[in-house]
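User: Sequence in, structure out. Go.
Assistant: Echoing your sequence, followed by the C-alpha cells.
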Amino acid sequence: MTPDRDHSSPPTRPNSVQVFDQLAARYDAWFESPEGSAIFRVEAACVREAMGAPRGRWLEVGVGTGRFARALGIGDGVDPSREVLQYARSRGIRTAVGFAEHLPCPDAAFDGAVLVVSICFVSDPGRALRECARVLKPGGRLVVGLVPADSPWGQNYAEKGRAGHPFYSAAKFYTCEEIARLAREAGFTEAEAKSCLFEPPGTAPADISTRPGIVPGAGFVALAFTRNPNRKGRRRE
C-alpha cells in the first residue's frame, strides 16, 4: 500500500468526500456520545465475530477516523477523505488516500479486509468488491458490515438523508441480498453472517449481543465471505 498518495479518480457518491472532509471532527465526536459509543461497541463486536480468527495482514476499506480498525486490530486503512485519515493515523493506522473502487494496494497483499458502514458511501459497490477480491490472497476473508436498507434502521437513516442529514444524504443503503449477490459476482463465496442492533432506531443498545445469520429487522449485519481461490486477482481498468 502506498501511504498518503492520492489515488482519487473520484468515483464515490456525490459530495461524500467533501462531507467527511468538512465534518470530520463532528463525525469522530459522535463515537464519544452515549448513543454513538453504545452502537459502536455493538457493531465492532459483531464485525469481530464475523472476522473469525483473523490472521495475517488486514485492511479496512473506508477506514474513516480509524476507530473500528483500532478496535479490531487492523493495521492498514484506505479512505478518500484526507481529513478523517488524520484521525486514523493518530490511532496508529497505516493510511493511504484512495477510493474503494481503485484501491492503492498491490494484488493479493492482504489476508483479510473489512468495510464497516462504508459500502453505502461507495458509488460502485460491485467494482469496490472486485477490488477487495483483487487485493486479497486466495482464500482471504472479506467482512462487509452494513445497515440493511430494508431494516427499520436503514429506513430511518434513508429518511434522515432525504430530509438533508449531512452524512445520510450522501449515502445509499443496500439490502443484505444485494451485497451478497455483488460479492458472488466479484469472486467471493458466502461464509457466514452475524446480526445485531435489535432495538428500535434511536435507541441505544443495552448490550453487545449478536445472533447468527441475517436476522430480519436487525439494524446492523456483518456479512463474511471467502475469496475464491480460482479467481484471477488482477486489476481491470
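User: And one key feature?
Assistant: The beta strands are 6-7, 58-61, 76-79, 94-98, 110-116, 136-146, 188-196, 211-212, 220-227.
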